[in-house]
From TrEMBL:
Protein name according to UniProt: Malate dehydrogenase
Active site: H187
Enzyme Commission number(s) of this protein: 1.1.1.37
Gene name per UniProt: mdh
Catalytic reaction annotation: (S)-malate + NAD(+) = oxaloacetate + NADH + H(+)
Highest taxon above the source species: Bacteria
UniProt family annotation: Belongs to the LDH/MDH superfamily. MDH type 2 family.
Length: 328
């Protein structure tokens, strides 16, 4: 029997986690032979919801769930964590601008970064999902100076999956046949879903689609605005099950590796690749191997690509400047 892996999850009584936790406990993320301990964090007001969640997790009698902790203290939640999924965040209230959301979430991720720095396993893998995910990930890693910045990532996998699914539907091909999709940048409307390197059986996807108008007018905006379309369709509730699924996909690739001749999109600390200056959490195409990611190098970019990528970078810089006073 393998020893259990400690998985900390924040926002545990929220919508995404209502889908996520049961799938993790069933073995969908780490495999059917990997015992886990769930260390769940939410705010004190969530206590009654925690009680119900715990009862349901118990009632599933998951063979792999060997421990379960619920707490409102990040230092307890992140103690010895091997994996930390930072899903919890303040939701965007009515009349709240993105700037207000950043200000409201900054202190949460400062505190959680400090707690990870103090008590998590030194090899912890941290995925930030709570929005604005890229900048929250930046805040978290800046507050964890003793941990390797490469242990931190922000989730763009839902956008990546949305892009794969749009192409699969357009071409009536299986999702698994599509390789080398990219979503660059910020998890926001400025993200740039980029088909220009994607292939099916070594054929460029753009050639197979042969419809630039569809790519520019349908594919790109559909992926960029999908989150809002789902909120409208679900009468105000955001994408939860698909976000949970993307969390599982992101962590599986990071831990077990991306498949041969393919890559994925991950929000990670930029290192200057592709003209994106160092010091923002930006989504790049990455391959993963032995629990480490590497940015795919050497892809040719058109001027159009560069402009789109720059726009998302500039948005991230604006976001950072909004919260910079919280970091100093
Ligand atoms: P939700 O509002 O249902 O749940 C959020 C949970 O976070 C609540 O239980 C709340 O009490 C908790 N929370 C708030 N402050 C906390 C703190 N300081 N510590 C621990 N928990 C705290 O939201 P939902 O639908 O579960 O989404 C969670 C986040 O994920 C949101 O910010 C959402 O915008 C984001 N999201 C990100 C996606 C991505 O692709 N990166 C996709 C979908 C959602």
């Amino acid at each position: 029997m393998k020893s259990p892996i400690r998985i900390s999850v924040t926002g545990a009584t929220g919508q995404i986690c209502y889908s996520l936790l049961f799938r993790i406990a069933a073995g969908d993320m780490l495999g059917k032979d990997q015992p886990i301990i769930l260390q769940l964090l939410d705010i004190p007001n969530a206590r009654p919801l925690f009680d119900g969640l715990v009862m349901e997790l118990q009632d599933c009698a998951f063979p792999l769930l060997t421990g379960l902790i619920t707490t409102d203290d990040p230092y307890t939640a992140f103690k010895d964590a091997d994996i930390a999924l930072l899903v919890g965040a303040r939701p965007r209230g009515e009349n709240m601008e993105r700037k207000d959301l950043l200000e409201a979430n900054g202190p949460i991720f400062i505190e959680q970064g400090k707690a990870l720095n103090a008590v998590a396993n030194r090899n912890v893998k941290v995925l930030v999902v709570g929005n604005p995910a890229n900048t929250n990930a930046y805040i978290t890693l800046k507050n964890s100076p003793d941990l390797n910045p490469k242990n931190f990532s922000a989730m763009l996998r839902l956008d990546h999956n949305r892009a794969l699914s749009q192409v699969a539907r357009k071409l009536s091909r299986p999702v698994t046949s599509i390789r080398k999709m990219i979503v660059w940048g910020n998890h926001s409307n400025t993200q740039y879903p980029d088909l220009s390197h994607s292939e099916i059986n070594n054929m460029p996807v753009t050639t197979l689609i042969d419809d630039d108008n569809w790519i520019a007018k349908s594919f790109v905006p559909t992926v960029q605005k999908r989150g809002m379309a789902i909120i409208e369709a679900r009468h105000g509730r955001s994408s939860a099950a698909s976000a949970a699924n993307a969390i599982i996909n992101h962590m599986q690739d990071w831990i077990f590796g991306t498949r041969e001749n393919d890559w994925t999109s991950m929000g990670i600390l930029s290192d200057g690749s592709y003209g994106i200056p160092e010091g923002v959490v930006y989504s790049f195409p990455v391959t993963c191997n032995n629990g480490h990611y590497q940015i795919v190098q050497g892809l040719e970019l058109s001027d159009f690509d560069k402009r789109k990528m720059q726009k998302s970078y500039e948005e991230l810089i604006t976001e950072q400047s909004t919260i910079m006073h919280l970091l100093t």
